[in-house]
Structures are given as C-alpha cells and as structure tokens.
Amino acid sequence: MGIYAYICFLSALAILLGFITSKISDKVQSTIAITASAMVCSILVWILGSLGLFNIDTIATNVMEQIDFKSFLLNGILGFLLFAGSLGVKLPILKDQKWEIAIFALFSTLASTFLIAGAIYLIANLIGLPIDFIYCVVFGALISPTDPIAVLAIIKNLRAPKRLSMQVEGESLFNDGVGLVIFVTVFAVAFGGQEASFTGIMGLFLHEAIGGILFGFVLGFIAHILISSTDDGSMEILLTLTIPTAGFMFANNVLAVSGALAMVVSGIMIGNWTRRSGFSEQSQRYLDHFWEMIDHFLNSLLFFLIGFALLLVDFNIYGIILMVVAIPVCLAARYFSLWMPYRAMQQVRTYNPYTLKIMTWGGLRGGLALAMALSIPAKTAFVGDGIDVKEIILVMTYSVVMFSILVQGSTVEPMIRKSKQVDPNREEYLQPSNSSH
C-alpha cells in the first residue's frame, strides 16, 4: 500500500478512537484521549513484537517511517492547522495584548532556548555524555516554542477569561513561527555548514521571520480582494483553501520564508477584516463550520500519530536519564523566561493572578517539536560511545511532548476554573496613573 492508503486507514482509526473515547468519558479532552490511546497501542505493539508475535512492531514502524512525520506536519498540514487556529483570533483583544504577545513570542522563546541548552549541556556532561553546546541549542530551539496545535486543541475548549486566553493562544501562534525560524537558523549552523557569525545568523533569522510576516499580509490582501469580488458562498470557502495550500508551499519552497508566520498573519486578516466585509452572514457560518471540521479532523490524525511516534524512538541509558531530566528543565525554563518580562510588565498593567501559572503549565508542546526533532539528520553527529545525537534529542523531545499533552493538558483546567473565580469579568486592565501596587 502507498502513503495515501496508510493515511486513509490511520485517519479512520483516529476518528473511531476519538468517537469511542468520547462515549467512554466526556470529561477528557478528545486530543488527550486519542494521544494516550495511541501511545498505549504503540506499547502493546512493541511488546507483541518483542515476544516475536506477528512481527507487528516492524510493520507498524515501517508504516510510521513511510509517512515521514516531519514532511507530513512541517511541509503539509501545519499550514491548515495554523490558518484554522488564527481565523478565530479576535483582533481587538489581540491589539490589547500586542506587547505581551510580542515580548513573550520573541524574548521568552529565545531566553527559554538558551536556558534549556545551558541546563542540558551541564547535566549531560555531569553524567558522562559530552554533547557539543550547539546540539543542546538545537534541542532548546525545537522544544521552547509552545505548540499552537496542542494549545488551541486543548485550551480553547476550557473557556478561559478572554484576555488570558488570548495571551496563551496568541503567544502560541506567534512563538510557533518564531520558534521555527530560530530552529531553522540554529539547524543551519549545526548541520548545514552555516557560519556561526552574528550577521549571518541575524540575516537568516530576519529573512525568515520578516519575510513570512510580509508575505502573510500580501497573501491575506489578495485573498480578501478575491473573496470580496464574489457572492458565491462555495467559491469564497474554496478561495480560503488556497492560502494553506499553494500559499504555504510558495512561502516555504519558493520564497524560503516562514510559511508558519504567513499562515498566522493571513488567517488573522481573513478571520477579522474579510469576515466583516467580504463574507455574507451565511458564508461566515460556512467559514466557521468548514474550518472547524478541517481543524478537528487533522488534529485527531496528528495526535494519533504523536502517540504512535513512540515506535520511532530508540532508548539507551543516557537517553532515559536525559528524558527524565528534560521535563523539569523545560518547565523551569518556560517559567523563568516568562517571569522576567511578566514582572516588568506588571509595573504598568494588572494581570489575573493565575496568568503566569496558566501560561507556564498551559504552554503545551506537541507534534511540531516532534517533527523538528525527526528532521534532524541521522548518523551525522555522535556523542559518547557512538550515540547518535538525533536519538538523544528525539527521546528528550518525546518525553516532554507526552508529559505536556497527557499531564499538563489534563490538569490545566482547575487553574483556568480558579482564574475565572478570581475575576470572571475583568482579568486585565490598565493601571490608573494615581494607583499604587
């Protein structure tokens, strides 16, 4: 069977699994239930293979390798998921949070990257595994940005206070694009022979980031003009499909700019500007229903594949130690990278007291980090006794992602509930000039 056939069968399994888990319990988020179920299935497959039964582990691993998780997500459905997620961003609330989101997406992502890199570098050397610092930075770059796919799939259904929700969702959308740009830049230095000079790195970073944002504006404007020129509801929806398909591919493969940032910018434009002036009231409902269906379907498939990605991970003693260590390191780096700008911004604004806790614990990692880890070339860099750097990074990434989705994702709801009880109607406001803290 070809890749298309595998995707068809796995999609059906993911949907059926989501249906079954929803019937068993409606208290667990479907994405969490699908991921957990798929991970349990992958463990059973591995056990059966270890016992020599059916050779099922080899078959399942071959299927996962043929799908190419990295290409499927980074060069495929990521555009759809980011565009669908950004359609729901409310521009007035986003404008009110623009400085927070910009600082968290830029400063906090960079700070977290180097905090994680430094901690992993020190710990790895302490346990007798001398890893070059640049490879630690690669891990920090791919694990620092919160995954908007995971965040939007889990957080948006919990109905957090609007402004707090926008901080979490807006930051995840933009730091995803920023994180991808940081990863591409560091990856070029670590594996692509790019000179590690300040001008070279900044040039590559700015080309990816600024180019992606500008292309997103152009793409959104062209789509707005075309959608506004027709009254055909079906054609209006079809025109939105050209953005995460041809637009995403053109950004990544032709212009070599960040397709992720382009999707976020164009999605916000279509979801706010075009929604008001380009769509009829009926077409607006069609737009929401269509992209909600696309989002739910692709999320189900993606989280199913995340659970089965366990079959692609090779474990060794060093990897197991770093796998356990990586979870608290990433959480601590996330907290401190947010705490620094958060404390500074508290001088001029008042926040819901649960903001920092929710942004830390609700900053989930997901398939995006796994896809970046899987994109690292195998058998090109080694540490210790011939241990592949890719395997070390992949096992740490998988542990952080699974902890994030299964533990953080399933326990963030009590925090959000408390945040609504503290101040249900006004969780953030400008401080009057004559007030005191």
Could you give the topology of this structure?
Blueprint: H1 3-24, H2 30-50, H3 56-67, H4 69-87, H5 91-96, H6 98-126, H7 133-143, H8 148-155, H9 162-190, H10 198-228, H11 233-241, H12 243-255, H13 259-277, H14 281-308, H15 317-345, E1 349-351, H16 355-361, H17 367-374, E2 382-383, E3 387-388, H18 389-411, H19 413-422, E4 428-430
Antiparallel strand pairs: 1-4, 2-3
Helix pairs in contact: 1-2, 1-14, 2-3, 2-14, 2-18, 4-12, 4-13, 4-14, 4-17, 6-7, 6-9, 6-15, 7-9, 7-18, 8-9, 9-10, 9-13, 10-11, 10-12, 10-13, 11-14, 12-13, 15-16, 15-18, 17-18
Written overview of the protein:
This is Sodium:proton antiporter. Its main location: membrane. It comes from Haemophilus paracuniculus. It is found in: Cell membrane. Residues 427-437 have low confidence and may be disordered. It is built from 19 helices and four strands. It has one domain: Na+/H+ antiporter like fold, CATH 1.20.1530.20. The chain is mainly α and 437 residues long. It has helices spanning 3-24, 30-50, 56-67, 69-87, 91-96, 98-126, 133-143, 148-155, 162-190, 198-228, 233-241, 243-255, 259-277, 281-308, 317-345, 355-361, 367-374, 389-411, 413-422; strands at 349-351, 382-383, 387-388, 428-430. Helix 2 runs parallel beside helix 14 (281-308) and helix 2 (30-50) crosses helix 18 (389-411). It starts with a helix and ends in a 7-residue tail after the last strand.
